[in-house]
Amino acid sequence: MQLCRLTNAQPYFAANVRSLNVRAYLEWLDTVNAPAGLTTLSDMRAASGQRDPFNVSYWGIGNESWAAVATCCRKEYAENSAASPHGADLWSQNQFHCYRAKRR
Hints:
Radius of gyration: 19 Å
Structural class: mainly alpha
Helix content: 40-55%
Largest sheet: 2 strands, parallel
Order of helices and strands: HEHHEHHH
Number of domains: 2
Distance between the termini: 45 Å
Number of strands: 2
Strand content: 5-15%
C-alpha cells in the first residue's frame, strides 16, 4: 500500500481460490475496505495505525486460475500461454482439451 501511495497507483488485490476460502476472502475485503468502527477487522486495521480504509477497488478472484490445468500438463500450458497470438479463446480451448485428455 505504501508503494501505491508513493507512486500514485491503484492497488490490485488477488485471492488465490486454491488456498483461500470464501470467508477468508470476505474478511480480507472487510479488513482493507470497511471504515474503522464498523467491524472487528476494520478496528484491528485502525489499531495497527491505518484508521482510514484503503478503498481497494480492483480485486481478482483466482489470480492463478489455470494452476490446476498447468500442473497436469505443463508442456501444453507453456506452448499455449496467455500471450498466445491466437488470443485467450484458443488458449482456453487448448487448456481444457489438455485437461480432459489428462483426466481420462
